Amino acid sequence: MSEIDAQPRDVPEPPPTHAGAGHFLWQQLPYAVALLLAIAGVAYTNVSHQPLVGYWEFLALAIGVVCVITKWPETQGRQMRIRLIWTQALHWIAVLITMNIMLVSGVQQMLPTPATGLVLLTLLALGTFLAGVSLLSLQIAFLGLAMGAAVPAISWLKQSIFFFLLGAVLLIGLAISFWLRQDGRPAGAATRAQHQTEA
Fold this sequence. Notes:
Structural class: mainly alpha
Low-confidence stretches: 186-190
Shape: flat
Number of domains: 1
Strand content: under 5%
Oligomer: single chain
Largest sheet: none
Mean pLDDT: 75
């Protein structure tokens, strides 16, 4: 009987399947979409020389929703979830108010039209990065850094190199997230194996 009990312990864990990789990519999809939308807005602003005011406001609200969804499963209890919603709502309302201050006619007279789009993107990037820091979310903080990197990229690069640079930043961020996820897996497997041997 003891030999039968010992057999399941000797069987190694099956290697991670493609479903695990697909699930990981599905989790990273909101961040990739937000970054692609930011790149699209930057590209349009660069080509048309017109600020996309409503576009950046919509993107700020969308990223705020992503922030809440990201931390929702980790937040326990009704009171903590209400606190999460309120803190993120106040954070993003402050970002939206700051964006709209930059659009006041007196401020607009001091800034050329292409610069307004860059300022709005900078504020959105800063708000995203600070939200990632407060939520302790690597993906959200990286999204803010990637959007911030787009600002000097627009100023310095006018050709397709700009898109390759942002694509490289996106791939590096996904690789870092995947690497951190892989680092957590062996520890969990070792803990399970230790519990099984103790049993």
